[in-house]
Amino acid sequence: MNHQPEDMENTLTGSQSSHASLRDIHPINPAQLMARIESYEGREKKGISDVRRTFCLFVTFDLLFVTLLWIIELNVNGGIENTLKREVIHYDYYSSYFDIFLLAVFRFKVLILGYAVCRLRHWWAIALTTAVTSAFLLAKVILSKLFSQGAFGYVLPIISFILAWIETWFLDFKVLPQEAEEENRLLLVQDASERAVLIPAGLSDGQFYSPPESEAGSEEEAEEKQDSEKPLLEL
């Protein structure tokens, strides 16, 4: 009989803990969760995130900037038509800037195809373009005669090298981590919404209450005492 009050206390404690847990879950608002899910799904429907779009714009800027510098170089060194014939038709690896322009076109095509069209979430494409750009420019600077042709012999290789590594840094430290973080947030919100659906709406604290302590234990103890006293009286 001594175990019965302890069982009652355990039952009351369990009801109070379940009451507290339900109150903790209750503040989840399904409407707010659905609104957040729709906002995340709206971003997915765009097809490309804002940070990835910024990266693609920077890749386009890379191509246009190198093209502009090359056109200026063509115009400075004797006119565009004559310099085009010398650098394109009569291409010479040691003195032409045409290959640096083609290198920018190569970066543009690979990165736009990989991260805008195919929407890759891996760094292998940017690693390929940066490695090719770095190796080619280092070899050209060492073997060619660009430094003897004026300021553009320094500007074009250095600008191409810097832009390629800025693209690598931006993708690896901004685009991919931010997109992964947004995807994790979407999964957490969806998981919370699924758990919120299992909870009935409109629950209030009044619907959960702890029953008053029963006096059944004390009544049973009194009856046992009376039963134990009867044999003594008969004696």
UniProtKB/TrEMBL annotation:
It is a multi-pass membrane protein. Keywords: Membrane, Transmembrane, Transmembrane helix. Residues 1-20, 203-235 are annotated as: Disordered. The chain crosses the membrane at residues 55-76, 96-116, 123-143, 149-166. PROSITE patterns: MENTAL. The keyword Glycosyltransferase does not apply. Residues 48-218 form the MENTAL domain. Belongs to the STARD3 family. This is STARD3 N-terminal like. The gene is Stard3nl.
